[in-house]
Design goal:
The protein is an alpha/beta fold. Helix content is 49%, strand content 12%. The longest helix has 14 residues. It is globular.
């Protein structure tokens, strides 16, 4: 495989992506990939170029995120919303071609519950978890693109539906599980490295735990920041203010009743995912 060298005035486009899933270990995987000497990951995680989060608006700006000083075989980025966001697969295929894609998933109910608390933390979600699951179809019909940004708990956990869509457009899609990465990190990472065509490693470097659970001190600050970012997108200042507003928080365990409801609703829209995780 060709080694890509840094060149004055030249910015590369990625030749692989980590496309999901949100709250399934993509940050941890991104950090491990960044440690590999033959892989260059984007300066920022979650560039959102192929969805409409307004973080990167032009192809030249997107290219600039991959500027490097050395060399690499693989150049990539990780945006977990790509897996489920409508239209992303087609945009990626048109812009980057038939590149290899990596997907990391986890227990789909645990994933959606974590996404729910993420929404509460950021001030997006006013409902209880149970009501949010019960209202998902209504929200999807009423909210447009905003539904897919914050409230698609069941939809994002319908892994098999989204993976099948990508496999129709891309010839190389590698799927791994967070549970396996946590138990067998060297084996799972080497499987990813082999898939990407880079050298395997003999040991795994320690990475800082990604995205520890937090909560906002003042939701009024969150609401003001949400309004700003909806108009102009996130930036370093809004991100800094958010970080200062958060404190460590351990969210409560999901109730058995809510877990069973979630399994039932997920089975209605994507029984293959329920079966693959042996939830029934």
């Amino acid at each position: 495989m060709t080694t890509l060298q840094s060149q004055s005035g030249k910015d590369w486009l990625p030749n692989f992506l980590v496309i999901g899933a949100q709250k399934a270990g993509s940050s941890t995987l991104h950090d491990h990939l960044s440690c590999h000497p033959q892989i260059h990951m984007s300066r920022r995680k979650e560039l959102h170029y192929f969805d409409d989060a307004f973080f990167t608006k032009t192809l030249s700006a997107y290219r600039s995120e991959f500027r490097m000083s050395g060399s690499a075989i693989r150049i990539g980025e990780s945006t977990p919303s790509y897996l489920s966001y409508p239209g992303c697969a087609e945009k990626i295929r048109t812009t980057l071609g038939d590149i290899p894609l990596v997907v990391i998933v986890r227990d789909p109910i645990s994933r959606m519950y974590s996404q729910y608390w993420h929404g509460v933390k950021y001030g997006f979600e006013p409902l209880s978890f149970r009501d949010a699951i019960l209202q998902e179809e209504v929200r999807q019909n009423e909210m447009g693109f905003q539904f897919h940004r914050n409230f698609d708990y069941l939809s994002r956990s319908a892994y098999e539906t989204h993976i099948k869509k990508y496999r129709l457009l891309f010839s190389s899609v590698h799927v791994c599980r967070l549970e396996d990465l946590s138990r067998f990190p060297l084996q799972i990472l080497n499987e990813v490295y082999e898939f990407l065509g880079v050298e395997k490693v003999s040991q795994v470097k320690d990475v800082t735990a990604a995205n520890p659970s937090k909560m906002a001190r003042l939701q009024s600050i969150n609401h003001a920041l949400n309004a700003i970012e909806l108009r102009v997108g996130a930036n370093r200042l809004t991100s800094l203010i958010r970080r200062k507003n958060f404190y460590p928080f351990k969210y409560p365990k999901i109730s058995e009743a809510d877990r069973e409801l979630s399994i039932q609703r997920l089975n209605d829209i994507c029984p293959d995912t329920v079966t693959s995780y042996a939830l029934r």
